[in-house]
What does this fold into?
Amino acid sequence: MADKVALITGAATGIGAATAERLSECGVRVAVCDINEEAGAKLAESIGGIFIPCDVTDYDSVQAAVSSCTDQLGVPDYGHLNAGIMTVPTGDDFLAIEDVSLEQYKRIIGVNLDGVFYGLKALLPVMRGRGGAVTITASVAAFGMLPIDPLYSATKHALVGFARSIAGANEGGSVRVNVICPGVVDTAIVPDSFRDAATIMPPSELAAEVVDLLENGANGEVRAKVTGKSAFVVPPVDVLS
Ligand code: NAI
It folds into this structure.
């Protein structure tokens, strides 16, 4: 992977940061994109990458980040569309769906769905000439229920169908689009009630899967990874043929 370029959203902390670190260890030059300027700039300096302030809810900001990465490091070979939030900040009480405000609804849709659409819309046209891969961070919440945060689960379900459909539309193209669905990873987003020392995964363990998906993952692959178990591919249910 030496001399490749990667752009990662939500890269200042957690899974994105661990992926940035692992990619840079593989010789990849990384553009760390995030709204958290302090942590993002610090990480970028420590891995010899660059920090680009980027709010994934704003298409102009995402497009500017892709342009800035291209100007400073080169056309990205890899994109990791990873920025994501839960409906309420970590530590706040979860809300019954009828108590979620319209602003909270628009915020989670803005980060978790708009952010991925904007990322693909900005990245795919510039990446097609060189080829490469985009890995989207969904969640195992894409396959089951998450009663504490139905909107989070809805966005992650949506990402799986979205990515599979894009991959299908781009079959045979130069850019592979695939998905990582993590179990519980030890990051700031995780509610205390999910912090079970026996099942929580270090971000580095998950980052290894993301890097493998970027390098080797199939177009349309949806890969789940929970701690202590080998990652596995989640096949689509084909109901239309
Ligand atoms: P995190 O909170 O450490 O990382 C999220 C990053 O996204 C932060 O650096 C934050 O500043 C950034 N971000 C938030 N809003 C943004 C915006 N508008 N524009 C740009 N960046 C923004 O949490 P974590 O766990 O690393 O989350 C990364 C992804 O992994 C998310 O999509 C999350 O839903 C997903 N995930 C996390 C799991 C876990 O157990 N930690 C499990 C499954 C999925």
